[in-house]
Amino acid sequence: MSLGDTVQGILDRGVADGDVVGAVAKIINADGETCSAAAGTRGADSDAAMSSDTVCWIASMTKAVTGTAAMQLVEQGKLSLDDPGAEVLPLLGELDVLTGFDGDGNPVTRARNGDITLRHLLTHTAGMGYDIWSPELGRYEEATGTPGVIECQKETLRIPLLFDPGDRWFYGTGIDYAGQMVEAASGMSLGEYMAENIFEPLGMTDTAFKISDDMRARQSAMHTRDENGSLFEMPFEIPQEPEFEMGGGGLYSTADDYCRFLAMMLNGGSLDGSQIVSPDTHAQMAANAMGDLRVTKLVTAAPPFSFDAEFFPGVEKSWGLTFQINEEPAPTGRPAGGLMWAGLANSYFWIDLQNQVACCYISQQVPFVDPRSYGLFEAIETATYDSL
Q1: What is the model's pTM?
Q2: Residue ranges of the domains in the chain?
Q3: pLDDT tens profile 298-313
Q4: 57 burial class (0-12, 13-18, 19+ CB within 10 angstroms)?
Q5: CA-to-CA dists, residue 143 to 96, 127, 139, angstroms
Q6: Are 128 and 172 in contact (CB under 8 A)?
Q7: Which residue in 63, 130, 253, 306 is the catalytic one?
Q8: Of these residues, 36, 52, 60, 318, which one is catalytic?
């Protein structure tokens, strides 16, 4: 049986078992598509088939694209990885550290020790977090009436830090600030910058913060489970007229488009004659950029939106610019040095530079790391390495 048949079988079984309403997976090598499979529909209430050009919210798979934009500007000398970020984005010099709450429930903060750098932002070591995994930030937002980041309001970017820059790793909004640095250094909106410098050169015609009419005609619904475990459609959309474009998670895209980005990474920073980043910058992006710090388990503070999250528990993991890196071989067969990340609505990718293979898997449902959807991705990855 071919890998394509195996992957199709995994997705077909996933739909039949109710693991997903619809899902798509595409596996590529440096020369292009290896196999592509899709199953199910674009919504629990839809008859339209899921396909590799179905438009989906890719959530935090946006981060790797924003990181690429920032690294282009580092390459051009317009941004620095290690200079104080406040020199470009003054807001970064104004953030204090949240230490707790007083007897009336008001937040208590202290001055930050050290400067926040772009490296901190891209590696999730700046001190920012997400309320989904931080009860402290959830309490801060409730006490102050601050909107969550998903609402794309600039007020959210003034939420305090959880710890001093460089002290540890904690997954959060750092790459939203990196996106703001891209805007400040380029003089363009983040979406305009990405379109001109990443999407158009790579032929990514269905990737944007703003959903075009053509994209909307092929869009998947979002889903969650009822008390019986059945998936149903839920209303959800990233604000289409945001105060800031969310570099950490605002993009809509397709498996076809995202694989163009993955192919560029497999090819050392270029694709079809378009040089997106130099080989040296590409090597920087794919290497551990946070020293001895390591990725740790994210314990959910918001069960409707995420399970506890850690990929390959027990495997040492670092962070590049901006991908998670497994420093040891993964149980799926991925060798040490693999790059990966994911999106809140259960979309995932990995990039294996050693074996020159990458994969994009997309479903549209919460909570994050739903074992039933993530299990399909893991099965596809295992099957891929079994076939090599």
Answers
A1: 0.98
A2: 3-74+189-387, 84-183
A3: 999 999 999 999 999 9
A4: buried
A5: 17, 20, 6
A6: yes
A7: 63
A8: 60
